[in-house]
Amino acid sequence: TVPLSPASQILSNEEKRANFDRYGDAGESQGFSQQQHRQFHRFHDGFYFDESFFHFPFNSERRDASDEKYLLHFSHYINEIVPDSFKKPYLIKITSDWCFSCIHIEPVWKEVAQELEALGAGIGVVHAGYERRLAHHLGAHSTPTLLGLINGKITFFHSAVVRENLRQFVENLLPGNLVEKITDKNYVRFLSDWKKDNKPHVLLFDHMPVVPLLYKLIAFAYRDYLSFGYVYVGLRGTEELSSQYNINVYTPTMMIFKEHIDRPADVVQAREMKKQLIDDFLSQNKFLMVARLTSQRLFQELCPVKKSHRQRKHCVILLTGEGEKFAEAYEAFLAFAVANTKDTLKFVYVYNDRQPEFADALLMDRGKSGVVILERRNNAGKIVYKALEEPWQGSKEDNFILLDLLDQLRTDPGLLSSETVVADLNDELAPVFLIRWFYSTLDYISDCWDSLFHSNWREMMPLLSLLFSALFILFGTVIVQAFSDSSDTRDSQPSEKEETAAKTEKNDASFSKESNRIPKKGFVEVTELTDINYTSNLVRLRPGHMNVVLILSNSTKTPLLQKFALEVYTFTGSSSLHFSFLSLDKHREWLEYLLEFAQDAAPIPNQYDKHFLERDYTGYVLALNGHKKYFCLFKPHRAGDEGGTLGSCEDYDASLHAEARGKPSCSPGSRSIKNKLHKLSFWMERLLEGSLQRFYIPSWPALD
């Protein structure tokens, strides 16, 4: 075979040929040329942009790897981060590619994230480009955005991104009463609250004037199990406390006190208190030697369900009462528990009066103290137990009997022969409803205050826009109403009809006594039905609309209109009802024509009857449906319906006939006229229900 020349090799290989055309070389320097070329991105013919010149990692491939372990996804945030925020606060950064400000704060963020994570705070990073749903859920409208999460609540960071501000921001997320300042004056009271709080108490001795952030984070994580106090050993007024417990003022010290306040149950000292050291120390001392069962959660933690024979744990429960009467039995049980502490045994006690269902399931007599050894079998409340036959008094004989049962239990688990199901324990330390409501209200007000003054104004713009719109509408309504009222007061002199109505109203003393609720002007609009508006108000009335027409005369106009307004006042909100009145003196023939189609309800007298022209239709009410050509009729009721105000008179029409014959009748004064429209409101209700009788006519007559 004849070896090819270098030129032939380049020409025969398309890749080498392309490299030679582009870089002028395809030999040993080819790798360097290609590597050098990868550092450039083609921007324009003859011009190349070098990112390394500016040191800006714009693309995701060159993003800082330290953020990778903090990246959050939506499901991870909802299912893990939010529940975990009840144990520790989280500092979350929302970032994106092509963000100059994100690159600017990166060194500070990296330093603070490592520092806070070592102290026990949570760190999270959300990439808005890939997790838009989570970024929108957190309320981030720009990048970078820093926020804090604690107890499921979000708080935004709005200060300069420096180390001190970020540390202070995380510290401000924590509640203010986590750690109590302890001195010689209050340490006895603090340590003596173990029985009321049902918690061990922790004293932190350090030479820092303020409580370190590490201690506050630890106190927040263990706040459900322990109460924390801080002693500044350099402060005057702590010498007695330091000397009593032999504290080394140069070394941070942590002590746990349980049932005995004169000596600590456990102590740890270290020049540098690390989080892992404190966690191990506190996790081993979360409960009292003999804790009181105050909730179902505590019962499940102290007495876990049996999972296997190797993980078998038993609870020795003292069921007793409160007060000095049972103090001796409790002290004897506590001494027995201290002397016989084991990993497989938990000693607890229950107040019978506070947990009556639990006590009744295990004891025959709640008035006496008793000891029960039990084992939980499932989370549904099933237990197996063995109760001491005699009440617990704390004597030596009782101690021997209990100790013998525990020795037998190690070799014979079948000793627990009784079986029952107990209900969940009551939460004794839960606040009452009013206190919970009060604290919830305070939290809501504080959240609103924080949102208003410390949140991003861009986030507050929709709320502020809605608030100012509502205020503008309210203010405009008030101004329009004020001008409307002022124009009403400046109206011209009252017309002749209004003067007549005013005079009649003054003379009608009986009507004023019975009802002071006279509708104001504009509340009930009643127009007169005349030949001018007859077509628009009746003949061409829109489908579904009705005109309620009151029949009156000139002499009865004012009282009938007043009573009519009172009766139909509650129906004025319906847009399909219109209210009018018809003068009987002008349009009697029109009315009698309509009534001919309702002979059963309102018979018309014969024209040869001498009382033909004396027929009184005042007080009649017609509901006219102009589109479907029918009407409903309301006839005045008997005057006796008002409770006998008019004696035993019958229908008002009959009284008029009797008067015409010369017989005595009731005086048709304003009261009797008003009584004509009695129960009109009930008739209106039936009208809207559609249960009234309808009288159809072929066509509407002309109104001359």
From TrEMBL:
The keyword Transmembrane helix applies. PROSITE patterns: THIOREDOXIN_2. Pfam families: Thioredoxin. Keywords: Endoplasmic reticulum, Membrane, Signal, Transmembrane, Transmembrane helix. Residues 56-175 form the Thioredoxin domain. Residues 486-514 are annotated as: Disordered. Residues 487-508 have a biased composition (Basic and acidic residues). It is a single-pass membrane protein. CDD domains: TRX_DnaJ. It is found in: Endoplasmic reticulum membrane. The keyword Transmembrane applies. Its main location: endoplasmic reticulum. It comes from the Eukaryota. The chain crosses the membrane at residues 463-483. InterPro entries: DnaJ_C16_autophagy_reg, DNAJC16_TRX, Thioredoxin-like_sf, Thioredoxin_domain. GO terms for cellular component: endoplasmic reticulum membrane. This is DnaJ subfamily C member 16. It comes from Acanthisitta chloris.
